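About this split. The held-out portion is used to measure sequence recovery: a designer receives only the structure tokens and must propose an amino acid at every position. Recovery is the fraction of positions where the proposal matches the reference. Here is one held-out target exactly as it appears in the evaluation file.
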């Protein structure tokens, strides 16, 4: 809970600067890449957040990471501030909140479509168009394959969940049969 509040404050400040400068995409990309690095390389998190390392060493590590990510000067300064304020552990949450703010600003939402098999390009486009019509927003769709749903699809966009999977239909049929006994 505490990290969410902190992440919102930092993301809001970064969003305001990015909106003013017109650099939202670059800032978002750098945050996303750093967040992915946090998730895949635990040593990075340790190097930036472990109080056993002196603050100047952690600052140099963050500076090096910013250089490797080809981050703008604004992003480099932002990341240095996070290290100085001992908030480097909140980067993934900041990235998530920042992306949500950008999406809201651009009337975009993220959607996930789960299918039993890989979807064709045409089918993906039709699903995306349908979701956009339902939500009234531009939907960025990512797809996942989950054979356990047997067939059909499950689409999730924000709070909206459309479950047309055979697994769910079979479970409903099972419940209705149980209820009639």
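Reference sequence for scoring:
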């Amino acid at each position: 809970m505490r990290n969410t509040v902190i992440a919102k404050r930092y993301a809001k400040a970064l969003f305001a600067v990015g909106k003013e400068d017109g650099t939202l995409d670059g800032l978002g990309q750098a945050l996303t890449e750093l967040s992915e690095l946090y998730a895949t390389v635990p040593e990075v998190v340790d190097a930036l957040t472990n109080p056993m390392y002196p603050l100047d060493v952690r600052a140099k590590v963050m500076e090096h990471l910013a250089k490797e990510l080809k981050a703008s000067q604004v992003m480099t300064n932002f990341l240095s501030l996070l290290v100085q304020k001992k908030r480097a552990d909140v980067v993934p949450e900041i990235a998530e909140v920042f992306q949500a703010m950008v999406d809201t600003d651009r009337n975009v939402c993220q959607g996930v479509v789960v299918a039993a098999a890989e979807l064709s390009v045409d089918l993906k486009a039709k699903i995306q168009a349908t979701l956009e019509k339902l939500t009234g927003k531009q939907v960025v769709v990512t797809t996942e394959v989950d054979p356990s749903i047997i067939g059909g699809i499950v689409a999730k966009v924000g709070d909206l969940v459309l479950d047309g999977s055979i697994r769910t239909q079979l479970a409903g049929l099972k419940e209705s049969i149980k209820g009639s006994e």
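Annotator remark: Helices lie at 2-21, 24-40, 42-49, 55-68, 73-84, 91-105, 121-135, 166-180.
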